[in-house]
Every structure is written in C-alpha cells, then in structure tokens.
Amino acid sequence: MGKREHLSKIKLSEEQRKQLTAEIKAFYLDERGEEIGMIEQMQLLDLFEENMAPIIYNKALDDAKSWFSQAMDNLDCDYYLLYKNENGKA
C-alpha cells in the first residue's frame, strides 16, 4: 500500500444504512410524534454521514491513540520493573 490514502468519505454498508434509517424514523416518531418518509430519512443519514461521521471518526482515532500511548507507557514501566539488581542484592 505504501502511501497512506486519505479517507474521503466513510462508507456504510447497506445493512448499516437500513439500521440507521430505522433509528432516525423511530427517533422522529418517539421524540417528535412525527412520521418521516424514506427520502427524509436518507437525507438526514446523508447529512450525518457527510458532516458528523468524520468528526466522530477522528475523535475515535484520537481516543485510540491516547489509549495506545498510555498502554505503551505502562509497558515501558513494566519492562524496567523486570530488571535485576546488578549488585547481587534484591
């Protein structure tokens, strides 16, 4: 793969899109008492996918990097705990 490719758009599977449009429909019905059609559901999903998904994705990457950095710090500390005293004393 060599060079890193920029993710231009997060792609959802057809099953994920169906699940999310059902969630949007249920939200509108439960929270607002409104029925919205399939076109409106798809438009909202497209809006979220284009505008919110990259922000959430980047936040998840930042969180994973932070977790990994902490795990590496812990590993480094644990590594040095394995060292033996070279003076023959415990």
What does this structure look like?
The structure is a single chain. The protein is an all-alpha fold and 90 residues long. The mean pLDDT is 86. It is rod-shaped, with a radius of gyration of 24 Å. It is built from two helices and no strands.
Low-confidence stretches: none
Please give the share of residues in helix: over 70%
**How many strand units?**
0
Distance between the termini: 50 Å
What string gives the helices and strands in order? Answer: HH
Let me know the largest β-sheet: none
Report the principal-axis shape.
rod-shaped
Structural class: mainly alpha
Strand content: under 5%
User: Rounded to an integer, what's the Rg over CA atoms?
Assistant: 24 Å
Count the DSSP helices.
2
Mean of the pLDDT scores? 86
Question: What's the short version?
Answer:
The chain contains 2 helices and no strands. With 90 residues, the chain is an all-alpha fold.
List the helices and strands and how they pair.
Layout: H1 14-32, H2 38-81
Helix pairs in contact: 1-2
What keyword list fits this structure?
single chain; 90 residues; mainly alpha; 2 helices; 70% helix; 0% strand; rod-shaped
